[in-house]
User: Which sequence fits this backbone?
C-alpha cells in the first residue's frame, strides 16, 4: 500500500515523500480512509506507530480546498512537547498547501501565541490548560470546528485533563468529526469516547514488539552513594553514544547534571520546572549532538521524539512499573537493539520487585566495580519472612526456585479473590486476608519441592 493509494492529494503525498516516508504505517493505512470518509474514529496504537500522520494527513486533505483562516480542526494533546511535535508535523506535511497551523501551550509567553491566533489559522494544536485560558479571554472561537482530534487520550487521563476536555468540547459544534487516539483504552477513556463520539469506527493495531523484548536490559545493584561514580564510569567508557538518564525527581535531575558537568560530561536536564524555552533548547541541542547525555524525569520525557539512543539509564527506578517500559522504549527504536541499564539500591528493591513482576522475569545482573551485595525481594512478603531462615541451608539454585514458587503461590492466592485491583494486593493481601490459605499451600508445595534437598521439614 502506498500513500497515493490512500487517495491523498498530490501536495500531501509529495510532502510525505519529502519527509522520507516510503509507505504508510499500519495505523495510517487503516485510519486514513476512515477519516477521509468522515467517520468518527477510535484508534488504539502504541507510541511510535505514526499516529500523528494518521490524523494530520487526512485533516490537511479535508481542509485544503475550504475557506481558510478559521479554526476548522482542533487537536488537543497533553504536553507542550507533543503539541510542538504535532505542529512541526503539520508544517512538514502541509508544506505545499496554503493552510496555516497555530500551536498554543502552557509554560511559554502568551503574547506570541496570541499574535499567531489573531493572524488566523485553520488548524489549532493546543494543550488543554492554555486553550481554556485563551478561550476565557475570548481569543478563540471553536464554533467552526469540523474535526476534533483527541491525541494521547490515556495520558490526558493520567494527567488529569479529562475535565478540561469535557469543558472544551462544549464550545464546539455537536455536528463534527471526532477522532480519538490512545495507546491504551482504560474504562474512563471508553466512557469518554461514548460521550464524545458518534458511531465511531474502532481501529487497533498490533503493538510493535515490546521494548521488554527488544531492549537488552541490565541491572546493577549499587549503593546510592556510588550511583554517580558508576554512571560516570559508564558514560566515560566510550560505549555510550547517546543516552537518556532518568531520575525520579526534578531536583535529582539538576543535581545529577551538575555532577556530570563537573566530571566534564556535557549534559542537560529536561523536567517540568524548566521553561518551555529551556526544554526546547535542551532537546534541540541533544538532537543535534551537541551533547550526548540528557537527564530527564518521566513527565518531561513523555512522547518526546528523540533520535535513537544507544543507552537508557535508570539512575533511579520509577515509582510506576509501567514507566520502566516507557523509559527503556527510548533505547534502540525502530528495530535497532538498545541497552538499558538500571541502577537499584537497597531502598529500591521493592520497586524492582514490582517491575520484575510486570516483566515476568528477572532483569539480568551486570557486575561492576561498584556492585553492592543486594538480594532481590521475593515476590510475596510473607513468603520472604519465612524463606529468610532457610536461605543459608538451601543452595543457590534453591533460592531462585523458591522465589518462583512464592510468585506462583501468591498468584494463586490472588486469584482466589476476584475483582480486586491487582497492584495494591500483591504484597499485602497474601499476608492479611489469605495468610492461612497461602501459608498452607506454600508450605505444602515447598516441602514437596525441597524435601530431598533440605532433608525434609525445615519449613515450620
Ligand atoms: P505516535 O504518535 O504513534 O507515537 P508519531 O506520529 O510521533 O508516532 O511517529 C513516530 C515517528 O515515526 C516519527 O518520527 C515520524 O516522523 C515517523 N513516521 C510516521 N509515519 C511514518 C511513515 N509512514 N514512514 C516512516 N516514518 C514515519
Ligand atoms: Mg503521538
Assistant:
Amino acid at each position: 500500500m502506498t500513500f497515493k493509494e490512500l487517495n491523498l492529494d498530490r501536495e500531501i503525498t509529495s510532502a510525505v515523500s519529502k519527509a522520507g516516508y516510503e509507505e504508510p504505517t499500519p495505523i495510517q493505512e487503516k485510519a486514513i480512509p476512515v477519516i477521509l470518509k468522515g467517520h468518527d474514529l477510535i484508534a488504539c496504537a502504541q507510541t511510535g506507530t505514526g499516529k500523528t500522520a494518521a490524523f494530520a494527513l487526512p485533516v490537511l486533505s479535508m481542509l485544503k480546498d475550504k475557506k481558510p483562516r478559521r479554526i476548522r480542526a482542533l487537536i488537543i494533546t497533553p504536553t507542550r512537547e507533543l503539541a510542538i511535535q504535532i505542529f512541526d508535523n503539520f508544517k512538514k506535511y502541509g508544506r505545499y498547501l496554503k493552510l496555516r497551523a497555530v500551536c498554543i501551550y502552557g509554560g511559554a509567553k502568551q503574547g506570541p501565541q496570541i499574535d499567531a491566533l489573531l493572524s488566523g489559522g485553520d488548524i489549532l494544536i493546543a494543550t488543554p490548560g492554555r486553550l481554556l485560558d485563551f478561550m476565557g479571554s475570548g481569543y478563540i472561537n471553536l464554533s467552526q470546528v469540523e474535526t476534533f482530534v483527541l491525541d494521547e487520550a490515556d495520558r490526558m487521563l493520567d494527567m488529569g485533563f479529562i475535565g478540561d476536555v469535557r469543558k472544551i468540547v462544549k464550545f464546539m459544534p455537536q455536528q463534527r468529526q471526532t477522532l480519538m487516539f490512545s495507546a491504551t483504552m482504560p474504562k474512563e477513556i471508553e466512557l469518554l469516547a461514548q460521550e464524545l463520539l458518534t458511531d465511531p469506527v474502532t481501529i487497533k493495531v498490533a503493538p510493535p514488539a515490546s521494548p521488554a523484548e527488544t531492549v537488552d536490559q541490565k541491572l546493577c545493584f549499587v549503593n546510592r552513594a556510588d550511583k554517580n561514580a558508576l554512571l560516570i564510569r559508564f558514560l566515560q567508557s566510550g560505549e555510550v553514544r547517546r543516552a537518556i538518564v532518568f531520575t525520579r525527581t526534578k531536583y535529582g535531575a539538576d543535581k545529577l547534571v551538575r555532577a556530570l558537568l563537573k566530571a566534564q560530561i556535557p549534559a542537560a536536564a529536561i523536567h517540568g520546572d524548566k521553561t518551555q524555552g529551556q526544554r526546547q533548547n535542551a532537546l534541540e541541542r541533544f538532537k543535534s549532538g551537541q551533547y550526548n547525555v540528557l537527564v530527564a524525569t518521566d513527565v518531561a520525557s513523555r512522547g518526546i521524539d528523540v533520535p535513537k539512543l544507544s543507552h537508557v539509564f535508570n539512575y533511579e527506578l520509577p515509582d510506576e512499573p509501567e514507566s520502566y517500559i516507557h523509559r527503556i522504549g527510548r533505547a534502540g527504536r525502530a528495530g535497532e537493539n538498545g541497552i538499558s541499564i538500571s541502577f537499584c539500591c537497597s531502598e529500591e528493591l521493592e520497586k524492582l520487585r514490582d517491575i520484575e513482576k510486570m516483566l515476568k522475569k528477572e532483569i539480568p545482573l551486570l557486575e561492576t566495580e561498584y556492585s553492592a551485595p543486594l538480594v532481590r525481594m521475593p515476590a510475596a512478603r510473607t513468603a520472604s519472612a519465612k524463606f529468610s531462615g532457610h536461605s543459608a541451608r538451601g543452595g543457590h539454585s534453591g533460592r531462585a526456585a523458591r522465589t518462583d514458587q512464592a510468585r506462583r503461590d501468591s498468584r494463586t492466592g490472588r486469584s482466589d479473590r476476584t475483582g480486586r485491583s491487582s497492584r495494591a494486593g500483591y504484597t499485602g493481601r497474601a499476608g492479611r486476608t489469605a495468610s492461612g490459605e497461602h501459608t498452607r499451600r506454600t508450605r505444602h508445595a515447598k516441602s514437596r519441592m525441597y524435601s530431598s534437598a533440605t532433608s525434609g521439614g525445615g519449613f515450620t
Summary: Residues 21, 24-25, 28, 45, 47-53, 305 surround adenosine-5'-diphosphate (ligand 1) (CB under 6 Å). Residues 381-460 have pLDDT under 50 and may be disordered.
